[in-house]
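Worked Example 4.2. Consider the chain below.
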Amino acid sequence: MTDALSRLLASRDWLMADGATGTNLFNMGLSSGDAPELWNTDQPENIRALYRGAVEAGSDIFLTNTFGGNASRLKLHGAQGRVRELNRVGAALGREIADASGRTVVVAGSVGPTGEIMAPMGSLTHELAVEIFHEQAAGLKEGGADVLWVETISAPEEFKAAAEAAARADMPWCGTMSFDTAGRTMMGVTSADLATLVEKLPNPPLAFGANCGVGASDLMRTVLGFFAQGTERPVIAKGNAGIPKYKDGAIVYDGTPELMAEYAVLARDAGVRIIGGCCGTMPEHLRAMRAALESRPKGPRPTLEDISAHLGGFSSASDGTGEDAGSARRERRGRRG
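Applying the procedure from the previous section yields the following structure tokens:
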């Protein structure tokens, strides 16, 4: 029998994923600097509410509260010995909510980056990275996750290690990278690079794409970059709800439900198969996205001009893949230096 996500992809033109994890949990009282994953055991009702909020808003897929649930990240909180437990419980709570929904809802086991720099630039070897990701994947599988959801990756080496861990765990998987200013990940990967990389993997993901980054406009430009490579693999778009701003002592995102509805429709029209939100995306955004996707007819693939007109301008002149990519790289290095 095929997995739940593959069955949904085979039967539907588009699927809606969830929104933010951190933003929602901060609104429930999570303190900055605390590990959200500890709430899987310490505040399970809040995690149920997080998952339920996405499902009730119309999400077909939601991510577990396990983004930082690997040994490297949990070590910062003295919880590196609880990887299996925290991931298992995070997935089990999700399984409970999905199974009670009355429809097919995919529980996606969130797997974020290790936070370490991969060799040769850093000390994290491929073998150790695979072990770290596999330990987390095993816990998510035990808890009942349908698919591993590798997200916010910057380095191709880390992406490859996560892919190998998914194969070792015998789990289907999806993978997204986070593209920042000038259309590149922190480690310099472009949309073209990722589209090429996924096809070279021994076990390619069910779907791939982009999440987080700068804003919905930039993310959509990256998405168009995937399609420019001729990919036929399902594409994922999980954009932030606008741009973060500091207001009354807190970080808030300025994207309205109406803006996110526009983004969702543009993503669908571009050919994206899995559409969701990232930072700042709340249930009210998801409800608006779902309503727009269901009520508005499919249109032609949007141009860059269409995207900027509906979602706002881009943060840079280049997406890192065109003739001006060299100048964009120089500009980026200058800002980071």
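The chain has 14 helices and ten strands. The radius of gyration is 19 Å. Compare this with Example 4.1 before moving on.
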